Amino acid sequence: MANIIEGLYYCESHEYVRVEDGFGYIGITDYAQHALGNVVYIDMPEADDEVTAGEEFGAVESVKAASDLVSPVSGKVVEVNEDLEETPGLVNKDAYGNWIIKVELSDPNELTSLMDAAAYAAFIEKK
Fold first, then answer.
1. Residue 51: pLDDT above 80?
2. Please, which residues bridge with residue 76 across strands?
3. pLDDT digits (tens, 9 = 90+) for 24-39
4. Which of the four pLDDT bands, split at 50, 70 and 90, describes residue 77?
């Protein structure tokens, strides 16, 4: 069973967002990193880029597959996780501790359309 953390917001494309002080920390879920296998590269936007809920903002490549990253929320990228540029496999060790981008949320109401931990758990059980 994949590790699912309470208090995060999840989307069907297996990204999560952790919200703190008006910022969203976006990454891939534990379920996603297990499905991908060893992550070898993460394509990320740059600081000051805009992301839009439901649209691609980058990609994750593993030894098995490549997968687009879809933003769960809209906003301005204020930081990228530079550790992942050097060591993308950190998401395999701790998907929730190694977020990909930090976004200044432009519309916190978008969070209401995302799944909570229980809904995400039910969603992946159907897979």
1. yes
2. 50, 104
3. 999 999 999 999 999 9
4. very high
Is the distance from CB of 88 to CB of 42 less than 8 angstroms?
yes
Q: Are 72 and 53 in contact (CB under 8 A)?
A: yes
Whether residue 111 contacts residue 19, with contact meaning beta carbons closer than 8 Å, is answered with yes
| 3-state DSSP assignment of residue 34 | helix
Question: What is the rounded distance in angstroms from the CA atom of residue 66 to the CA atom of residue 124?
Answer: 19
Q: What is the DSSP letter of 47?
A: T
Q: How many other C-beta atoms are found inside a 10 Å radius of the C-beta of residue 85?
A: 11
Question: Distance between alpha carbon 79 and the CA centroid of its chain, in Å?
Answer: 14
Q: What is the pTM of this model?
A: 0.96
